[in-house]
């Protein structure tokens, strides 16, 4: 195992802030299955150690093995034989001694006798750095269908205070213990065994209420058709309800097939998301190795206040839980830190400050576009739901104000030929279909300004007519020129002064017309601005695109809108000719078209001005949904965007559109986002009604996000400056 430390001469060690997952709230875990030598604990101990040495080299912090992994699960009456039990105790002792030089916290299964030798318990032994941190006995013993465990084992639910002997020493059983790892913030481990997760109120549910964040399940679990999916269903549900990580390792090769079979299934879930799984029915050992986001777990519990409410409801039952042992993952390793004097690390603060091992690439699904699923089937399902939510919101709003019948309240919107207004027009068309109204009652206007191109103006007209909306063109240049002239702005007299006032006069003029047109025709202005623009404040306040009577896109980020349009085309919701026009919109660069360009000049580009929406949406998701600060967001962005060829890309992404970002670019645009996000809260505080669409969150002051408009970003900017690398 290598250190993240680089020599700096006589100075303090210098570390790369992106070198170790342990610097960013993660812990690397492994769910391991391996061939068992049935009734041969000594051989099994060696096989465990072979895997543990490899896991140590991979900087795994927690390794979980199957139920009774040191003896085999399918022993039947052999488990009550003294030679087997003696050998099992010796195997545990062997692992305890060997663990002194190994990084992982080790969780293995073994049958152990009570000190009075009158009972045997099916146990999970938690070992680290030459110590036994806890021994969790199985609490629920199945004795139905193929299971017969009460024939051999005593239940462990009431075994607090019972002692077992290992290598001549007494060790207390800890069925209700939670192990806190104080140099890995957020890591609080609880262990249950197989059947414990199949009961209506599993021990892990109470443990999570008592503070456990990571649940390990050592399982025997013979395989039958369909059982693998049942296991995943239960684990996913547990991790989602408990806002926890759930590590599962099942017995496999080597178990007796006298009457049963075994598949060696392993997987890890985190807050309902599958982080990884191994192949089933393997030949040889297999491990699911992933990085669990402890910050996410803590943040989700903090946000979901009902978790703590549930804890208060069950407070009396939770009194049996205790933090049985406090551990440090990064204890002294002579072979790995030969240049470090252990006497320099005598207290907890010093140990916590030690350089963490270099861990390499983050091992977990990490999506470049967190609002956009990589899986095509999932993307199609999400697109259907998002579009349907937008349509349902507008249908309800129109119905509430007399728009549920022909001739009623009309949707009024400005169409520019860009992504947002195009998608809003599609939503309006579908809403009119559901209301049984003719699409001609949609009033669509294009309002060319000083920089409007014929390409976008033509797209707007062709699309509006293809949809069947009523379409008109209103040239805002005369009115805008007059306003600029009345204001004494140089552009009013023909000077090429293209400042923010010049831009906002046009943006405001468009919405001034739209609101008056809505008054005139008995309609409502349908807002087209999206979630990304709200986050960045990329909208004109007041009578501008920040305002409308009802917004349909405010819950949808820019990176998803293009996929929603693609989905509309793929689903054939409109005819082929309309589909061709929609593709033309998708192929057009995002631009506000407010500043004129001369022949040969590059047209105004939104992303040139405020940065790539891909990075901004990445930041928005992790700040809004996860509550992460700039340092962790920058680390995740570097993992997701640093390598063009790493990971998956969403369906529909062309090779030419794919790109990567350096750490310097990530830091620069993260700085832009942070400044704009804080300085533009006043626009979000006054945003119109709009439906929340994604679990990633909304920015409505009546929904997911409430923030003072005059808050300072000083702490965030300081973290950006001090903790985010720019090279």
From TrEMBL:
Superkingdom: Bacteria
Catalytic residues identified in the record: 67 (proton acceptor), 138 (for glutaminase activity), 194 (nucleophile)
Annotated residues for binding of ATP: 414-421, 528
Residues that bind L-glutamine: 144, 221, 227
Annotated residues for binding of deamido-NAD(+): 504, 533, 538-541, 683
Catalytic activity line of the entry: deamido-NAD(+) + L-glutamine + ATP + H2O = L-glutamate + AMP + diphosphate + NAD(+) + H(+)
Name listed for the protein in its UniProt record: Glutamine-dependent NAD(+) synthetase
Provenance organism: Brachybacterium tyrofermentans
Encoding gene per record: nadE
